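**User:** I keep going back and forth on a fold encoding question. It is easy to fool oneself when nobody else works the same problem. Could you pick a protein and write out its sequence and tokenised fold? Could you put it straight underneath, so I can go through it closely?

**Assistant:**
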Amino acid sequence: MVPEGTGSAAPAAAVLRVLVVDDQFLIRSGLTALLTAAPGFEVVGEAGDGEEAVRLAAETRPDVVLMDIRMPGTDGIAATERILAEAEAGGGAGAGAVGPRIKVLVLTTFDSDEYVLRALRVGAAGFLLKDTPPDRLLAAVATVHAGEMLFSPGALRGLIDTCAAPVARVPHPGLDALTPREREVLGLVGAGLSNADIAGRLVLSAATVKTHVHRCMSKLGLSSRAQAVVVAHEFGVAARMP
């Protein structure tokens, strides 16, 4: 998470540029007002549908996109997939290049497991319910920007219930390449634990856990921690938490 009070040493780095996407004007305006009033955040655009979100992401290159799922026309899942695909393919200057470090945080009205699961599969960094308190929402934007995964507690429980039984009929080709420790770490990532939580549970340093997570994602061909959660559940390696 981006720390508070980073001081004047690197003021530009402290400002997170956010694109707000929601088809409901009042919700979109409320999110914009919240972010604009909070120190360290800048709203670089507002979009009312997925097509406009893709265009504005290419034009403004935000750090984080707050993405609604259910919208007319191009929905939030399709928009997320296109934005992140352009980010990976483009990266630098030029038309349509969004930038490879962009993160998408999905906002939903209620726990819609099917939609959330699809959003994670295309690379969303996490999801929150729209009734999340303002301070937690701001912290969530900073959290996903820093590369962490973010789930609302209720939505995470829904995801775990949805994937309670492995749905894949064939083993993931990358799982055999994992070491026993990497597989254990992947299981705890699947349970929704942060690197710090995993480090405490396994009596490892946070840096060591981060290395294991990156190796897992590389071997499995994943682009986000959220996708690692989905894989862990779908292939039956997610840890069962008491």
Summary: The chain has a mean pLDDT of 81.
